[in-house]
Amino acid sequence: MHATGTDNAPRPVQLWWASLPDVRPGLVELLDPVELGRYEATADPANKLRFLAGCAISRLVLGELIGLPPADVPLRRVCPRCAGPHGKVTLDVPAGSAHADVRFSVSHSGDVIGVAVCRGAEVGLDVEDGAGTDVARVAPRVLGDTELAALRARPPAERHAAFLRYWTRKESVLKAIGVGLRVPLRRLRVSDPKLPPAVLSWPAQIDACHEVRMADTVVGTTHPASVTVTGTTEVTLLRHDTSAILRAWR
């Protein structure tokens, strides 16, 4: 269940946002060989730019934080199932170093790309564009029976926004605890969008319940986003626009 106790001070989570028009070809210089291979293998032009932007923002932000040139930031991706280089990205620094507690999460949807960074807790970020989403078709794959009934009870004009809020909350939780989409979203139950974000019940596929804290936000006026961190410390979101940084690179 969602924990009720809190630590004394809120945990700051830095949110860095950019949009696809800010992405420049020169940002490819920041990619390591694994990232470059994935970038070149991505056929869809928009997905290619989203991946490039996520890598670039991560490297620019983390480089500033740990005092390294962006291209030298040590990032690591390891799939927990096959050990391939495509798992959740982490900052690969030695245990006990000054930056060993830095965690971050990348999300992109539509023309928006975001990176969430915090210390001392695992973090998950999800943003959804939602444009053109067929809620009637997609909702049964994302929402449990109780959530789906609550969604259908809303006025039709409210259903799209409510569904996207459910969706961002769920994906941010699964990212934070490191299981990604290996667990069906509909098995994770979260609070109604009108209520403060919280996990109400965990899927049976997850070995143990987790203590998490969540926060909702909106990018611009159309992109709902949610952040989840592990632990019992409440979350404070600090937003930054990285558009100028990306445009200025090279």
From TrEMBL:
Pfam families: ACPS. Residues 123-198 form the 4'-phosphopantetheinyl transferase domain. The keyword Cell membrane does not apply. One of its GO terms (molecular function) is transferase activity. The keyword Transferase applies. This is 4'-phosphopantetheinyl transferase family protein. It comes from the Bacteria. Keywords: Transferase. InterPro entries: 4-PPantetheinyl_Trfase_dom, 4-PPantetheinyl_Trfase_dom_sf, P-Pant_transferase_sf. Belongs to the P-Pant transferase superfamily. Gsp/Sfp/HetI/AcpT family.
